[in-house]
Specification:
Shape: elongated
Strand content: under 5%
Largest sheet: none
Oligomer: single chain
Helix content: over 70%
Radius of gyration: 16 Å
Number of domains: 1
Order of helices and strands: HHHHHHHH
Structural class: mainly alpha
Distance between the termini: 27 Å
Number of strands: 0
Amino acid sequence: MEWLQSLGLLGLFLGSFLAATIVPFSSDILFVGILAATKQTVACLAAATAGSFAGSVVTYEMGRLGKWEWIEKWLGISPEKLDKQRVYISKYGIWLALVAWLPFIGDVMVLGLGFYRTRRLLTYILLLVGKFLRYLFWTIVLTV
């Protein structure tokens, strides 16, 4: 993904966006590289957070398009088990949005939050906070 690095902040936004969708890619290395190369702390933090958040919104909305029948048919999960998970997700699951940046499972969690139709605005806010804190962590590590 060297071509993304050559695009600078736009590349950071695009890379962060792609990494927050179902594309298997991590934006952390890209963020660290662009931040080290440009020394534009605030701009890098904003570009990476915005891209990652936008990618998660797309993933969340894709989950909202999901249908119970598809999950039952293609994954063989019973309606009872889906309903049990829905109750749990409705009660506690929205907080998973804070850790949606986790490698491998984060995108699946966001897709699930959309599928179970968590409260959209609160989910978006928690996604944004979690994504920002992720890149803030790397910013602090690199600038201290």
